[in-house]
Description:
Elements: E1 2-6, E2 9-13, H1 22-29, E3 48-54, E4 60-66, E5 79-81, H2 94-101, H3 111-127, H4 134-141, H5 151-160, H6 177-190, E6 201-203, H7 208-217, E7 222-224, H8 232-235, E8 243-246, E9 256-258, E10 262-266, H9 271-281, H10 283-292, H11 295-298, H12 303-308, H13 316-322, E11 326-330, E12 336-339, E13 344-346, E14 349-350, E15 357-364, E16 370-377, E17 388-397, E18 400-409, E19 416-417, H14 419-425, H15 432-445, H16 456-479, H17 482-489
Parallel strand pairs: 1-5, 6-8, 7-8
Antiparallel strand pairs: 1-2, 3-4, 3-5, 9-10, 10-15, 11-12, 11-15, 13-14, 16-17, 17-18, 18-19
Helix pairs in contact: 2-5, 9-10, 14-15, 15-16, 16-17
Amino acid sequence: xxxxxxxxxxxxxxxxxxxxxxxxxxxxxxxxxxxxxxxxxxxxxxxxxxxxxxxxxxxxxxxxxxxxxxxxxxxxxxxxxxxxxxxxxxxxxxxxxxxxxxxxxxxxxxxxxxxxxxxxxxxxxxxxxxxxxxxxxxxxxxxxxxxxxxxxxxxxxxxxxxxxxxxxxxxxxxxxxxxxxxxxxxxxxxxxxxxxxxxxxxxxxxxxxxxxxxxxxxxxxxxxxxxxxxxxxxxxxxxxxxxxxxxxxxxxxxxxxxxxxxxxxxxxxxxxxxxxxxxxxxxxxxxxxxxxxxxxxxxxxxxxxxxxxxxxxxxxxxxxxxxxxxxxxxxxxxxxxxxxxxxxxxxxxxxxxxxxxxxxxxxxxxxxxxxxxxxxxxxxxxxxxxxxxxxxxxxxxxxxxxxxxxxxxxxxxxxxxxxxxxxxxxxxxxxxxxxxxxxxxxxxxxxxxxxxxxxxxxxxxxxxxxxxxxxxxxxxxxxxxxxxxxxxxxxxx
Length: 493
């Protein structure tokens, strides 16, 4: 049973198949059709809803999610807010009123999702007022496409929504609601996993011990966390997902443990939660977060999922390879740590043994003088899959390059480092001649495939050019050349 609040009203949905999405639950099971289906892949944002969960102060904090690729069972113990829940009678919510007055609604199909993204921004402003900078607006609305291209009035609506009186929807007038949702969330975390053969398996273990047991009892069940990739098998390939083990409530997988050498990041930790850590430790890595996914995706997708998925075009594995990350695997024989370079074996094939799962990723603390650059090439600048992604780490010691790590995605069947090219640069002073040799070596190290995102030759030329960009970066840093800085900033993405 899925026990949750919808726009302030308690809902209990029984016998819901495991591969039901939040969007399907709303539109088909509950008849709430205000939330629209657009792409069914988490790209357009038409289906955006707000998920409320209790924070440390007992208040409800809201974040956006794509309802089309969110498992319905994961709203158990939450407060789900849709566009139907915002107005009170004829009194529009400030977000809706500002959208109307600023002519932010065009055809209207995408509008419900846009309104819900602005609603969560409005809620965050109500709780902690801060300037609505272009960066904040871009982050809040970056996951919503307006097919009528009405972005300027939508931006205007965002900037003036605080000028409207906050009449509050009916459910927000209930002072008991946060406590009721908190009690429901507490009960949800205490539920035992009880697979139901009649409707399929959707089990929700609470700790590693229970997860190990479920993996033993249900060896063919799929693990699911953010579902931002897995759910495409349902919406795009029309596959049945009738046996799922949801790891989002496994306590140990939600931890970030800091050590003297770095951080162990639980495999269930979302990108949104690790953004502050990366912003402080590895700004180039943090910047990538905003390039590869919208806020709706970052609110739910996990670093562990991106690694375990083992896609050759996953954005974070090349960065983790460049940083010498370590993976912690867990299973029937206990824990074992593995360098990430030994994890990827072949296309979609990893070193995981039967019954094993990824439990944590160790990201080392930046060493003194060590640099990281991450450059992504995609058809769209943001919210798109990579054609090529390069992650370069190094340090300069007495004018020569040390600890050179060059990692690529999109260049082979797995994300991997360019070992031969690294050897050319290691221990050498950067120069045009040295990098000419390195580029020739790199071209011979990979044999990428042709696909819709780029031809083999395009990928080779791109990778070689990114290595040249590294040389220009080193030259800029050494000579402090402002003109070259402008040139690099204008480099095609």
